[in-house]
Amino acid sequence: MLDADAVLIAAPAPAAARLLAAESPVAAAELSAVEYASMALVTMAFRRRDVLRMPKGTGFLVPPVDGRTIKASTFSSHKWGWIDEAGPDTFVLRTSVGRHGDEADLAWDDTDLVRLSRRDLGEAIGLSAAPVAARVTRWDGGLPQYPVGHVERVARIREQVGKLPGLAVCGAVYDGVGIPACIASARKAADEVLTSLAATLATGGARDTGE
């Protein structure tokens, strides 16, 4: 048992639903309805001299109609200056595999995902060079889906959780899957519980700690 003045639940929707089931069954039911997609990221590093004809820009998306294994590619060395500066002789890019309702390709092993990514990159942008390093990172159930009505669902969850003093929720399921969005979500939740706690203390509702 842990006695705390405030709690932030920063967990995927299924785990958050289990944690809230007893105290906020309405919020738990809403969270249980959120669907997730799994994906894999294939990160590859190339000798820069081998990829001098890379397209400008930060990458591209692949629509389902194209029938490719990869769903997108990010030219990391173009997108993030720190990667470009850290490896001036290296060009880093990544591909993503898997989307909601289309995850069969995730059954391939890591070596095959690298091979299939190289094939699709060759067809899409003419990249034929072999990478000097590659890594596959898998995110099983890592991407919450935002269908029509998701914003309203998030509002209902926060309304219900807000009825429990000192409790707030944060994470990718609420305000966006990107790192900046998740950080902003956490800061917002921390501000909420701190404000709630301060209000409780101001009205004399704090626990008797003997101080």
List keywords for this structure.
single chain, 211 residues, alpha+beta, FAD/NAD(P)-binding domain, Polyamine Oxidase, Chain A, domain 2, 2 domains, five-stranded antiparallel β-sheet, 8 helices, 39% helix, elongated
How many DSSP E strands?
7
Order of helices and strands: EHHEEEHHEHEHEHH
Name the CATH homologous superfamily of the largest domain.
Protoporphyrinogen oxidase, mitochondrial, domain 2
Oligomeric state of shown chains: single chain
- Which range best describes the helical content: under 10%, 10-25%, 25-40%, 40-55%, 55-70% or over 70%? 25-40%
Q: What does this entry look like structurally?
A:
The chain has 211 residues and is of the alpha+beta class. The protein has 2 domains: 7-35 and 146-202, 3-Layer(bba) Sandwich (FAD/NAD(P)-binding domain); 36-144, Alpha-Beta Complex (Polyamine Oxidase, Chain A, domain 2), CATH 3.90.660.20. It has 8 helices and 7 strands, in the order E-H-H-E-E-E-H-H-E-H-E-H-E-H-H. The strands form 2 sheets. Strands 3-4-5-2-6 form a 5-stranded antiparallel beta sheet. Strands 1-7 form a two-stranded parallel sheet. The mean pLDDT is 92.
Strand-helix topology:
Layout: E1 7-9, H1 13-20, H2 25-32, E2 36-47, E3 59-61, E4 70-74, H3 76-79, H4 81-86, E5 90-97, H5 110-125, E6 133-144, H6 150-161, E7 167-169, H7 172-175, H8 179-202
